[in-house]
Amino acid sequence: MTKKQKKMLFRIIITIILMVVLHIAYENFGAPADPKTGKTTSRWIVTEPVWFIAYMVPYLIIGHDILKKAFKGIMNRQVFDENFLMAIATLGAIGIALIQKNGEYTEAVAVMLFYQIGELFQSYAVGKSRRNISALMDIRPDHANLVTEDGFETVDPDEVKTGSIILVQPGEKIPIDGRIIQGETTLNTSALTGESLPRSVYEGDEVISGCINMTGAIKIQTTREFGESTVSKILDLVENSSSRKSRSENFISRFAKYYTPIVCYSALALALLPPLLSLITGADPGWGKWIYRALTFLVISCPCALVISIPLTFFAGIGGGSRAGILIKGSNYLEQLAKIKTVAMDKTGTMTKGVFEVSGIHNSSIENEKLLEYAAYAESYSTHPISKSIRKAYLDDMIWTIDEKTGEARPVRRPEGKNEKRSFDPSRVGSVEEIGGNGVLAMVDNKQIALGNRKLMERQGVTFKDCHHDGTVIHVAIDGVYSGHIVISDMIKPTAKAAVKAMHDEGVKRCVILTGDSEKVAKSVAKDIGVDEVYSELLPEDKVSILEKLLSEKKEKSALAFVGDGINDAPVLSRADIGIAMGALGSDAAIEAADIVLMDDDPLKIARAIAISRRCMRIVYENIYFAIGIKILCLILGTVGITNMWLAVFADVGVMVLAVINALRALQIPKVQADPA
């Protein structure tokens, strides 16, 4: 609880105590005489001015700030707000009590008291939502350890230039994006991605700012300045999200702007017109009765529930998303996301990993491990991505193989076991000859290894076997004898299929893949993950054309989202109704062009983002219908005199409290059906 909230709580408690004391005193010493007998049971009667002064003490303790705000509003010609309504209603009630000399000041104090209780509750609720955003703000690094000739120097992250070497100790935040040049460790990325599992990183790996170093000291060569680093971009996105208002928020702002003057003039009409009509007809005008009803009407009409709960719901939804590693740039995008019926996706890096990996090893004459070993040594001096993937498969504890029964790629641990560290022995490699467009000829352990495509096999006079699996096929021949082939593929992300299903479960009618890859590979991926349509062999401008076609086919009140991660996706991200970037590991251009950023590359978060938006909008509409419905009912009851001011304030504050409690539900991160139980 903040200092301001504690002060308000103290004022509320003091007011309640004074109210109880005054009520007991009035019952004993200020009870009016019985109108029939003219007698009173009290020992003595305190005069009316004394009760007025006594009740003004708790009234001013609890309501002085409201009166001050109302006065400032009048002076600034911004009259019609909730402070003005509360001030007029309570001062009017005090005025009626003074005129009638009945000592009924309790009602005015109670109205102000319950209003302030509601304000305190609302302040606490907003604070809770802000704390979720503030937790994300903790990713801002305090310092950077700049490596110098004499050791290291602690400096402000803004002072570190691109290409500098920084030291990150265990327990410290990585201050700037860069590449590890010394050491290995595990990183806590939960503040960025919402994922609790640590990530292992090694020398040569790219790391992003905002992660917490957990185990070992590492040296990082920075690849950008602090102002351009991931943590700075994230903080900028979150801090500016409140400036982009949704249509619902703008509607409420416009609604309050016109609603408050209307109810004020309506209350004035209610106070004047019925008594004037009574005077014309010769009946008792009943000024006090109608003025009281008008004041009750003002209390009921206060639009606090709407003005507070709607922005709070969007704020809570954005805060809940940020905790899940989903950064939403504004409530207008959150509202638009709830209308998504079509999701178009890039393939490479979005639904697939975007890196070459060994997906299968099919042998003819030797074991898989030996085949992979000879291939890795033959490619040991090449910088080609395919060569790197073969070497990585040999050095890693896990290799990818294709199950012949199911046709699915799956990781299999090497027989040697998890703890064995493999390395290359350069002495085993003799001559190496690269044949452009064909492959490599190398001497390994005095054996001639021919490694390449079908052209190389034909050139060497080796009879080979075709592979029916999708991907790049690398044939291997040893001493002129065909030994098998290795399949290199861009692997589908483990959650891609579940993500597409979850999107369908969340109401998305059409999932589409747009890719520049070949038709065969694109259709294979589309079939595996269950998308509805696929467009392949597209240039960046072709993607925009297809997106225009999809936009023209969607229904008027629905929206289309595009999900991508590459720089070539930026034009499509900008053109879509909602652009979603596969965040921290994606390109800067895609992140800048996108409306929503997923902080890790898990496609399941697309469905989770949609679920968050739809839950948020459900809560918004629940609060709108509930608040307006109760207001209209109470206004009607107040106009005909059924509701008094006590019930009016309970209705006003009660509706606001319930709406705020409902709004806080948006902080919760909804599960999608693909999530584990």
Strand order of the largest sheet: 10-24-23-22-11-20-21
Mean pLDDT: 78
N-to-C span:
34 Å
**Major β-sheet profile:** 7 strands, mixed
Structural class: alpha+beta
Query: How many beta-strand runs?
Result: 24
Shape category: elongated
Number of helices: 20
- Amount of beta strand: 15-25%
Amount of helix: 40-55%
What is the radius of gyration computed over CA atoms, rounded to a whole number of angstroms?
A: 35 Å
Low-pLDDT stretches are 40-44
Give an overview in words.
With 677 residues, the chain is an alpha+beta fold. Among the domains are: 253 residues, no CATH class; 79 residues, Distorted Sandwich (Calcium-transporting ATPase, cytoplasmic transduction domain A), CATH 2.70.150.10; 141 residues, 3-Layer(aba) Sandwich (Calcium-transporting ATPase, cytoplasmic domain N), CATH 3.40.1110.10. 49% of the residues lie in helices and 19% in strands. The chain is built from 20 helices and 24 strands. A seven-stranded mixed sheet has the order 10-24-23-22-11-20-21, with helices on both faces. It has a six-stranded antiparallel sheet with strand order 2-1-3-9-4-7, with no helix packed on it. A six-stranded antiparallel sheet has the order 12-19-18-17-16-15, with helices on both faces. A hairpin with a 2-residue loop joins strand 16 and strand 17. It is elongated, with a radius of gyration of 35 Å. About 1% of the residues have low confidence.
